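Quick one, T. Sequence first:
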Amino acid sequence: MNRFVSPHWLFVSAAALALSGCKPDSAQAANSGSDLFVVKRDKLRISLKENAELAAAVETRVRSEMEGQNTVIFLVKEGTRVNKGDRLVQLDASQVIEKRATQEIQVARAKAAMVSAEKGEDIQIKQNQAEMLGAKNDLNIANLDQEKFKGRELEGVLQMGERAQLTRDADDSIKLAEQERRLAEDRLEWSKKLFQKQFITKNELERDELDADRKKYQVQRAANQKTLLQDYDLRIKEIGIEQKVIEANLALDRVKAQGEAKLAQAEAEVESRGAELKLAVERLENLERQVKNALIVAPTPGLVVYSFEGDGMRRREVVEEGSSVRERQALIILPDITRMVANLAVHEAMVDKVTVGQLAMVRIDSVPDRVFPARVASVSTLADSSQRSFNPTTKVYKTIVALDGESLPLRPNMTASCEIIISEHDDVLFVPMQAVQRQGAVSYAWVATDKGHEARAIELGVNDYSYVIVKAGLQEGDRVHLTVPPAAKVPDFPQPKDPQPQDPQPTSPAPRDANGNLADGAARPRGDGQGRGRRGGGSGNAQMTAFREAFTKKHPDLAALAETDRTAWMTNEDIKQAIADDPELKQMWDAAIAGFGGGGGRGRRGGEGGGGDGNGKPTEDQGNK
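Structure tokens:
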């Protein structure tokens, strides 16, 4: 786990830096008095020294992939070297195994229901086919009956149908009755003549008369039957046949629609059972995956380091056997210790001087007799927001220095010091930073002469908080006071109308204790006596709101955790890792943090004050005029 050390070490005075062994050897030899520094031309290395903490260049976080809360029943010993595939953690999966057995039964039932639904669909398809065939046959029969009744045209000749045949039969019956009537009437005429001549009896005559009347009635009856046939029987039969055709068509449409509806239900049942089976199988696969995830093995080789949540001000959540862990909780970190880096924080006043690729030297407290060469690997673009809780007015930037070489005898979290070489200068004059004073826009130093002390204006070059190059105003052999001589009065140098910009001369922060308060006896930093400021955050609030909304959409569970504990944004490892793994969230988070600035209060001459424009931007320090 890469953790930056607290930035409290930044709050040291310039005098403390100068007396901490940062001077070149030649300058130390030249300094003959406790309050005097003899100026001498020599080599000067401009460097930045910071406390650091070692970490692996590459590390793998091992997390719990089991859902819910689970108990650790085995945990590999911290500090163990493991290879890929070695067992790291075993979680209790007994409840998941029971759920898996129950789910296997659910899967079997879902499969049976699926088979039944598929068979039902096949049966419905065949039943639809049979019903459609019957409906079509009924329609064909109705059409044939209609064709039989009306007749059909064959080769341009209309074939006689049942209607025409019945009409012809009626006409024939009338013709036959007419003929029989005429014969009966003829026979009656002969019978009358024969009866007059006494050849037949009266009974025979009456019989012929009765027969003639019967034949006349049969003619009339045949005519009436034809009329009934044409006016009623044939029309009724035609209407009935047409009705059967219509009903057959409607029956075909009804059978088709009912079949489609029943088939749709069968298909829906198959789809529903299929979805249930798929869901049951997915749940079973998830439970099997949970059982598999209960055994956590090393994804890469490395050194076992237990992960924890919290910081020095909160109780740590340490993973151990018997403890309960949640899903996505980091359990173990596997750093690859073949390549190491040093994590340090650079104060905002010096960060512009640090660039990627600069040479550096790393000293390890546990290996005091060895210096490890290194190079600057990265410098954060935005200030480290996690350090603002210690001192919101001081901004530091995360910097990573990569050590040269592999398989070094080092371990993560070792305490170290890192010296980044800013530049090296040959044959230059330089003085300690605490020897430089300011009066307005003019830098000067108190020079010891035979006649006493003398304030002399000087032109400065680059510096590194400890030493500064003197371009003009001093000569080799001059003796400068490291502190203001007793009874010395602030000189009044002519101020340039258009002062030329010089290399920035950082004001050394006053020493503070672990809580960020001024240390006992430390002088308060000087304000400009003018600056009004208040804690910035106008744009930061809106950016933070946008960040939280985006984070909540992507990680609702972690967002809920952050709502219950507001410090979790900067202390919870899962939240920080989620932000670091998502470029969009990382950019929004950095922008939100950058939007919150620090301002000062209303200062007074020689008292405590600071500069701020109310938006987090510091105002220019005018010093004591």
